Structure formats: C-alpha cells, structure tokens
What we know:
Strand 5 (125-130), helix 6 and strand 6 (158-162) form a beta-alpha-beta unit. Helices cover 52% and strands 12% of the residues. The mean pLDDT is 88. It is an alpha/beta fold. It has 3 domains: 10-191, Rossmann fold; 201-209 and 338-488, Rossmann fold (3-Layer(aba) Sandwich); 212-333, Up-down Bundle (phosphoenolpyruvate carboxylase, domain 3), CATH 1.20.1320.20. Strands 3-4-2-5-6-1-7 form a 7-stranded parallel sheet, with helices on both faces. The chain has a 6-stranded parallel sheet with strand order 8-13-12-9-11-10, sandwiched between helices. The longest helix has 32 residues, at 473-504. Helix 11 packs across helix 13 and helix 12 (290-305) crosses helix 13 (310-317).
Amino acid sequence: MSLINLNPRDYQKAIFETTKENNTLVVLPTGLGKTLIALMLAIERKQKYPESKILFLAPTRPLAEQHFQTFKAQLPELFADLQLFTGEIPAKKRKEIFQTAEIIFSTPQCIANDLNSYLYTMHDVSLLIMDECHRCLKNYDYTKVVDFYKRQSNNTLILGLTASPGHDPQKVKEICKHLDIKEIEVRTRESHDVKEYLKEREFDKVYVEFPKEFVEIKVLLKTIFDSKVNQLQSRHLLFEPANKITLLKLQNNLARQTGGGNWNAMMGMSLTAQAIKISHAIELLETQTLSGLELYLKGLQKQAEEKKSKGVQTLVKSPEFNAVMISLAHLQAKDVEHPKVNRCYEIIESEFKNNEKAKIIIFTQFRETAQTIVNKISKIPNIKPSIFIGQTKKLGAGFSQKEQKEVIEKFRSGELNVICATSIGEEGLDIPEVSAVIFYEPIPSAIRKIQRAGRTARLAPGKIIMLITEDTRDVAHHYASTAREKKMYRTLDDVKKELKNKQSNPSLDKFH
C-alpha cells in the first residue's frame, strides 16, 4: 500500500480485508473515511487485474467530482488514467474516453444511458463502487448499471458505501440482494476500533415554548384540517388516522380511480389535496417560521385568484383561513417571529463569544427558513453567514453546482463562518469540519439525522444542538429518528446473520 501517502486507520484496514474477497456493504458515519477504503480496494484490483477498469458511481455530479479529486490527490500520476464523466461530455467522446480510461467517476444516469445505447460494455470492469448506495432502490439508473455489471463483467466485485441504509429491514435486504452483498461491515462512533480516532461530541436539546398566539392560529388551521378529514371519512375513503403519509398514500390511490367519471374519487382527490396543504401549513407554524407560513398562505391566495383549483378556492374562502391571515398580519406588524429564530441568534452569538474561530452549520428543511435565519444572524458582529441550497427545476431558483462549490470554498477559507443548509448539506459533500451543528428542527429520518450529525467532532471536539418546539411534532420527530437509528443497527445485525446462514446453508435463501 505504499502508493498512499495516508495511513489507513485500523478499522479501515480491517474493512478493506473483507472487501477484497466479497461484495461488501460498508456502513460508516459521515467523515470516517469511506473513500479511503474505496481507494485501497481500487489499487488492489488494478494490481490484480492490470488491464481492467474501475467504475466509481455517486448520485450527484459534485460528489462524483469530489471522489475524482480525492483519488487524483492520493494516486501517483502514472498509476492509472482517471476520468470524470459528465453529461456535458458528448456521448461519442465518452465512448472514446471509456476505451482508454482505467478509473471512471460518474453519476449513474450517465453510465446507464451509455450502456443502453451500447456505447461500451462492462466486460473489463473489475470493481464497481457505489457511493450513497442506500439510493440504489429509488435510483432506477443505479439499479440498471448494477444489472449490466452483474451480467457483463468478467471479474465482478461490488463495494456499496453509505452512512446509513435506513431502518426498514425489507429495504436493507433489497439493497443487499440487488448488490449481491455477501458481507456487511458496520461501524458507529461507539465501535471500539473507531472511538480512539474521534473527538468528544456534546449533544444539547434546546426546548422552546410554542407561543399562545401560535396555538390560536393552530386551532383555526386544525379546524379546517379536521373538516376535510371528516368529509373523507364520511365518503368512506379514509380509514386510517390522518397524517401526511396516509394522506399522500390516499392521494395516489384516488388518482388511479378518477378515470371513468368516478365522482366520489374526484371529490376525494380535492379534499385530500386541501388536507395536505393545511397539514403543511401547520408544520410551518409549529416547526419553521411565521414569515414562511405567511408566504405559503399568500401563495394559496394567489392560486385561488388565478382560479388554479376549485379546492384552493374553497380553502381560501373559509372564515378560519381569513382569521389566520388576520392573526398573522397582527403578529408580523408586531415583528413577532417563531421563538426558534431568536434562540438560533442567541446560540450563534454565544458560540462565537466562546470561540471566535468557530464554524457552524445550521440545518433546516426549508429554504425560506434558511433565508430568515441568515437575515437574522447577519446582524451579529463578525458573523459571515450564507444560505446553502440545491438546484431546483424552476429556472433561477436555488444554487447551481458552481455556486454550491463557491460557498463551500468560502466556508473552508473562513470568508464565511456560518452556513445555513437545506438537505443539500447532508449528503456526502466535502464540507469542512465544523465546531457545531444546529438542527433547526428534528427530522424523523435516521439516514438524514446521521448525515447531519456527522459534520462535527471528527478532528476536534464538537457540539450538536437540536431545537425542539414543545407540544408540537418536533418532539415526536426527535424520538422517531432516535428509535429508527437504533432499529437500523439492529436490522443490519440481523441481515448480517442471515447472510452468514445463507452462505453456510445455500438452500436457506431468505432473501427471496
């Protein structure tokens, strides 16, 4: 391994030994060096099969580019021909490059399209690395590339990398089945061979009160929501407790029934859409910002004026809706905002008082919230904040990949010292180590919780601060993600045992 100027840690060496012989799923928290394991394995495969190619897939272009740069920095110049594939390179040119390239970094879309067009085959690929492989099920292109690889390659070896494959046993089994996984290597921050390399991480839960005036608005919104749910129940369309998940499921079911003039299903579709909109409004009120709620409700008013949907017109006409708008206008006139925004301000101010070189990342679900927080904290002396958001399909909205890279560079150099990120900041991107991570709201997803938390306490002691609004869904979400995280590690343990049993007794194929 003299090719690498980095010293792999003991757990990386141990995992690498497993990956050499078996298709392996590696589950390691963000920042613990999954890419280095991939690099060691790539070197091993190139030495074993000098004529072969290696394919490294990542779900987004910035991530693929990041892995490409890491390999380039670690490998001697003449070790292999490294190439980054993007959609901007014409297909004909990609076909040419593929012939001579030895280690290729790409998004799955690019490779899947080329394989479908018969531009090249996977015969010479001796290693397929898949980053964020928990996406393997949702990402149709990921699954397509794996299928081609398993059919075509002369020497198959698959390495799946993820910080968290989720807590659902069925999904974990599906990932394993699809990638033909024979071994699972799991480490957490608490693993005996990992602990020594990490710094202490403090975890603070900060509870904020749900103000009385907000409760009044919630009662009005809940009245609208309940009336829509009651109508769905009286039409014999909804039989489960009404929440975001059951309503979205109902919406999909009803969409399939609306053909052929099914009047009940069509009415149900409208009622479900209205209930979902109000449920979203309650979520903004409980967990986000008042300005975000007002913006959202004004958007509904605009849709009603433009007669975009009968359901929205019905919503906006209701006396409760109008009462909500009046209450919001009163609160905005008094400059009232969600108490979390002020608490965020106080936390940032205090962190920088204690350490003027602090670097902080704030995670939030919504762009409008990110902007509100940045506007607020930019009033603190010496704070240089920026929002950090992804692209959207809408023209002109969001940050291009070039702008995302610029923000990360400025954060690394110290030109920025606080970034307020939506989910774009959670996955994989090479964001520098931070002294504190603030969760503006708890999220029910174990995957996203692990990714957010992995941004701190790697090389220096760090802190996680979670803001929770009392008596709201924030509380349930916090407990849900904690329970799911525990369940995920239990699930991985169980699946690992099943794999072992299956190998010692192939007739017991439990994955089918």
